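Quick one - inputs below.
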Amino acid sequence: MLDVANGHTTRYRPAAGGVVISWPDHDAPAATGWPHRHLLDVDQLSRDELEACLDLAVEMRERRLRRETLDLLSGEVVGLAFCEPSTRTRVSFELAAEALGAQVVELPIDVSSVTKGESLVDTLRTLERTGVTTVILRHSMSGAPYLAARSVPVRIVNAGDGSHAHPTQALLDALTLRDALGSLDGRKIAIVGDIGHSRVARSNLHALTALGASVWLAGPPAWVHGFEAWPGVTVADRLGDALADADAVMTLRIQLEREAGGGVPSLREYTARWGLDADRLAVAQTGAPVLHPGPTNEGVEITADLAASERSLIGTQVVNGVAMRMAVLALLAQ
Amino acid sequence: MSSFGSLGDPAATFVLLGARVIDPSAEADAVRDVAVVDGLLADPATAPSDAPRLDGRGLVAGPGLCDLHVHLREPGMERAETVESGARAAAHGGFTTICAMPNTDPPLDEPARVAMVLDRARNRACRVRVIAAATRGREGELITEIGELAGMGIAGVSDDGSVVASARVARGLLAYLAPLGLPLIEHAEDPALAKGSVMRAGETATRLGLAGWPASAELSIVERDIALAAETGGWVHFTHISTAGGLDAIRRAKARGIHVTCDVTPHHLALTDAWVAGWRGFAWDEPTGIGADPFGAALDAALAYDPACRVNPPLAPREDALALLAGVSDGTIDAIATDHAPHPRERKGVEFGAAAPGMVGLETALSIGLAAVRAGTVELGRLLSALASRPGELIGERRALEAGSLADLVIFDPAARWTVAADGLASASSNTPLLGMELPGVVRMTVAGGRITYRDGLDSTA
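Output:
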């Protein structure tokens, strides 16, 4: 697929997605054949398109390692609209956009007023008039990117909305898993923690099942209930059932403040019943890797030893995050 | 050409020829002529020879519709709706009486405020009855001066928008209301179970990552109030019932002879929680795509999370809607009431979770009902009973189509279709997910208290 021998004059042609990326030293447009204006969730992507995203991210990762200058987004103005506190996702998008030659502006959004739902559309309209062509939107309310996509003529990339979706996280997780396992077809992936409140989990369910994996969920009943009918998903009664023979395990950040009236009685009890450590992972496939979207509460959902072990892909996820966001921005910018 | 009239107009005289005349209170359904002479129903044979003759062939004439649950936004939010605009919307929808809920700003919790609304309601395009607040400030603690309010002709009391959270206060209200013959109208929703939620719990809510309230939030209050009504002999009316479980509890309570009544909204009969995910089909249609499988289909960016679908109680899963339709057919549900809830654009053009709950319904209720009739889900006589005769009875209004009584009619074309559009609505607001949809049923004339309050065509044949 990739003609590395020609170095800078390579053309990228993933047969699957039908996407053609031409690099700047070519005359052709940066990307053609990508049918989506926005990235709102991975549910909109076919399996071929998912694979194309992953393939392109691999390419981006290699070029970034070689410190190539890529100006696929020159002339574009990417606005970072983070209506909810975020560090890693924002930095990752910022680096990705800058690596592709875009001008990046961080939108001065008053988190308190936006979370009250007063001004998202108005804010985005103002930005569009000032020349922003792509908005990276992080919002505390599920569905906010859909409102944005309907209301404002800019490209919207969902950087996490409420409990609903976090598509670039799911794509980078899928890439990390595909690199580690070769293929996701027929693999058993366990996700442990607060699935109900997790946008990372929902987008991962779409991406991993679309790529052929079966996903097992484990956690306190209030946090995993409701997903039983999701095709390709099994809700386990016991953590051990989810971990047994798993090819990879993902655990999520525990945010106890969200569950004042249910969930688990204490972090201590959560850790005692669902915390990941090397002993519990013994029932998984030998060497099965461990993922976490970060930031981790070491000693709560995962032990510090496990997070720092060779099985941990947490650092790789961060590296892949920038490459995946470069790929997404390049695909959308036609 | 359509036009509006008012209750202050001269009394009407006309003869409607050859319409299908349905009077659910008499279980009558026949093609015949209807005469209105000086505002009173009359024997067509005795109508004056110069009375205008109207061609009623293909039309249905029935009792004027009666809505037990409407939000007029006067006082406090007049740009969303006034008594005047709400009454016009009602006449356009075939309603001759609407009951205004008290959650205005300030709320209708004292006689002077109720009197102000009743004053504004005079000579409008329909009768406007007031439901007074059950507790002062709708705060759920001190009950309002219900004795004096009863003397002003209120239709009942309610803290709608909220439940009367304290069982002790609810019990006191039912006991106090019992000798007055007025209902406590309950918005059955347990505040603790509903806290933080923006839709009904279920697969669609799980799919969308939206917090949902469980059906038990309604059932627990329904069971509580049934017990209180049984103990006190008071009358509890549950408005906008939206769960199969709540409905079953009401059915059992009725069988035990407890004084319980209820209504359902057109949107809880016809729309489902899948609308929040972007599905656009009625409950009686076979679902496809995201409507059939919330997890397996991609969201449609144009339709998902539409704030117009945010309503409280939230739209329910299809099984509940089908149970509610059955409840209309078997008479467990006394009335279809719209919960007409106008909101200005700035309160709806926001994130789903930030949008004000509610949708307008006065001008689409009959059409939604007729769509259910066309689908074979509800029988037309039952529909008109639930939209007109039975709710009228509950607030002490007779709507029998008998010679000598004041004419109170809706005349509509059940086969004609129309497309719901903001500029075609008489309401000051247009917050409904039905915009752009084509629906059956066009109101040709509304006659309230012997006056023509709305007319669309239906000109004299001679």
